[in-house]
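--- STAGE predict ---
source: upstream dedup step, 1 unique chain passed
mode: sequence only
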Amino acid sequence: MSLDLTLIAQMVIFITMVILMSKLLYQPLNDAMESRTTKIADGLAAAEAGQNAQAEAEAEVKVQLDAAKQRAVEIVAAAERRALEVAEEATNKARQESALIVQNAQDEAAGEEQRLRQALQQEVASLAMLAAERIVESELDASKHNALIQKVIDQGVAA
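--- STAGE serialize ---
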């Protein structure tokens, strides 16, 4: 019987040890491992969420960069158009001013030409009068003088 009592005692001790080990060692160890597993799973989920957020942020940054590049292209194009407009306006203004300068120069030249013609006509007339006076003084006698006066009077009456 001693074998039976020893066996029962060993079984009771074994079961007691299993229960004590289960309550005092295995349960806290399982709780710690489960807690660690949960923390790792939470960390992995947070990492995945972070990667997703990073991907979304990178996509948003790319969209904003594309929009900024497009806006920059539009600004450059608008600046180029404006520069062409300003250059064209300056060219047109310069053409108008040059046409005005040419017209003024032509008007001034025409006025100067007219003034010179009048001065030349007066000079020619005075030279002709002087020459005629000298010719008349030297060659005209009384009979020729009377004939010349009569001719001028006849021409004046006929006109």
